[in-house]
C-alpha cells in the first residue's frame, strides 16, 4: 500500500515534469528541425545527424560543430571549441545542484545529461526544490523532441518554404525570452542581472574581445558577482542603520 | 570508424562532463553565503547573455531579430505561455519575411 502510494507520487511528479517540459519540446521543434536541415546541407548522413543529437544533445554546440566541420577544422579544435562553449554548464549545474532532492550519485549523473539551457531555465526559475522524477519528466520530453525533430528536419527540412525556414531561427531566442520575462516582472533584480550580462556580452562580442563561449561565461559571472556585491553592501548598510 | 563519429563522441564527452561534475560533486556541500548568492544569480544573468546580442544576428537583416525579440518580449509581458511566445515570434517573422 505504502509502496503503491510512493510509486504514484513518482508518476505524478514525472507527469507534471512532462507537462512543464512540453513547452520546451514544442520550442525545440523548429530549432532541431533547422539543425537537421543544416546537417544535411553540411553533408552529414542521417545516422550521423541522429547520433549527434543523441550523444551531444546541445543546440549551440551542434550548430557550431556543423559550421566547423563544414570549414574542415581539425577534430581536436572542434572538440576544444565545444568544451569552451559548454563551460557555462559548470555554472548552471552548480546552481541547480542543491535544488534537486536526490542523493544517489548514479541517478544524479544520469539526470545531469539532460540539463540544457532550456531545461535548466525551466527547472532553475521554478520556486523551491523538486523531486528527481519531475526533473526527468522535463528532460525526457525535451530530449525526445530534440532527437526526433533533428531526424525530421534532415528528411523534410529542405522542402519547407524559405520564409518559414528563416523565421524558425528565432525560436531558441524567443524561448529564452519567454522564460526570462515572467521572473523579471516579479523582481527588479532579475532585470539588472539580465541587462548587465547582456551589455557585457554585447561589448565582448561586438568588439571581438573574446570568443562567444568565453564571453557568455565572463558576462554571466561579472553580472552575478556585481549584483551580489551590491546586495551584500545594501544589506550591511541596513544592519548598520538599525 | 569515420572521423565524424569520433568528433561526435568527443563533443559528447566535453558536453556531458561540465553538466555532470558540479551536479554530482557539489550535492551536499554548503558554500559560503556570498558564493551561494552568486550561484542564485546565475540563471537570470546567463539568460541575458544567451539572448543578447545574438538574437540580432540570426539573419543578415538586423531588423529581423529585433522584430522577433520585440514580439517575444511583448507576448511574454502579457503573461503568455512559453509555447505561445515561441510560435508567436515565428508567426510574426514569417509574415515579415513573406511580405518583404
Write up what this structure looks like.
The complex is a heterodimer of chains A (242) and B (100). With 242 residues, chain A is an all-alpha fold. Chain A folds into two domains: 2-169, no CATH class; 187-242, no CATH class. Chain A has helices at residues 2-42, 46-55, 59-70, 75-86, 88-96, 105-112, 117-124, 132-156, 162-167, 171-186, 188-206, 212-241; strands spanning 100-101, 130-131. Chain A has a two-stranded parallel ribbon with strand order 1-2. In chain A, helix 2 runs antiparallel to helix 8 (132-156), helix 5 (88-96) packs parallel to helix 7 (117-124) and helix 11 (188-206) runs antiparallel to helix 12 (212-241). The N and C termini of chain A lie far apart (55 Å). The model of chain A is unreliable at 1-6 (pLDDT under 50). Chain B is an all-alpha fold and 100 residues long. Chain B has two domains: 1-30; 33-99, no CATH class. Chain B has helices at 3-25, 33-51, 62-77, 82-99. Chain B starts with a helix and ends with a helix. The mean pLDDT of chain B is 90. Chains A and B meet through helix 1, helix 2, helix 3, helix 4 and helix 5 of A and helix 1, helix 2, helix 3 and helix 4 of B.
Amino acid at each position: 500500500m505504502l509502496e503503491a502510494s510512493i510509486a504514484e507520487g513518482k508518476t505524478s511528479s514525472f507527469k507534471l515534469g512532462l507537462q512543464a517540459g512540453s513547452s520546451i519540446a514544442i520550442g525545440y521543434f523548429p530549432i532541431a528541425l533547422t539543425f537537421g536541415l543544416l546537417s544535411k546541407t553540411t553533408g552529414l548522413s542521417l545516422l550521423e545527424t541522429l547520433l549527434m543529437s543523441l550523444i551531444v544533445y546541445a543546440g549551440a554546440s551542434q550548430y557550431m560543430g556543423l559550421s566547423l566541420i563544414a570549414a574542415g577544422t581539425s577534430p581536436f579544435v572542434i572538440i576544444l571549441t565545444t568544451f569552451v562553449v559548454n563551460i557555462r554548464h559548470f555554472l548552471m549545474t552548480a546552481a541547480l545542484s542543491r535544488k534537486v532532492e536526490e542523493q544517489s550519485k548514479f541517478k544524479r549523473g544520469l539526470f545531469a545529461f539532460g540539463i540544457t539551457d532550456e531545461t535548466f531555465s525551466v527547472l532553475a526559475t521554478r520556486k523551491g526544490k523538486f523531486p528527481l522524477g519531475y526533473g526527468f519528466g522535463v528532460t525526457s520530453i525535451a530530449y525526445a523532441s530534440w532527437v526526433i525533430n533533428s531526424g525530421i528536419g534532415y528528411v523534410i527540412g529542405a522542402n519547407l518554404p524559405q520564409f518559414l525556414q528563416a523565421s524558425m531561427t528565432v525560436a531558441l531566442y524567443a524561448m529564452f525570452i519567454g522564460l526570462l520575462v515572467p521572473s523579471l516582472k516579479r523582481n527588479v533584480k532579475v532585470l539588472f542581472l539580465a541587462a548587465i550580462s547582456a551589455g557585457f556580452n554585447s561589448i565582448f562580442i561586438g568588439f571581438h574581445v573574446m570568443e562567444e563561449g568565453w564571453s557568455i561565461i565572463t558576462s554571466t559571472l561579472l553580472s552575478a558577482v556585481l549584483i551580489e556585491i551590491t546586495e551584500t553592501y545594501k544589506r550591511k548598510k541596513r544592519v548598520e542603520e538599525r | 570508424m569515420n572521423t565524424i563519429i569520433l568528433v561526435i563522441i568527443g563533443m559528447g564527452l566535453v558536453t556531458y562532463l561540465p553538466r555532470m561534475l558540479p551536479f554530482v560533486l557539489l550535492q551536499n556541500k554548503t558554500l559560503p553565503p556570498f558564493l551561494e548568492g552568486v550561484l542564485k544569480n546565475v540563471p537570470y544573468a546567463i539568460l541575458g547573455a544567451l539572448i543578447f546580442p545574438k538574437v540580432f544576428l540570426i539573419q543578415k537583416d538586423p531588423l529581423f531579430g529585433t522584430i522577433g525579440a520585440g514580439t517575444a518580449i511583448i507576448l511574454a509581458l502579457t503573461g503568455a505561455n512559453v509555447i505561445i511566445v515561441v510560435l508567436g515570434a515565428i508567426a510574426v517573422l514569417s509574415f515579415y519575411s513573406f511580405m518583404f
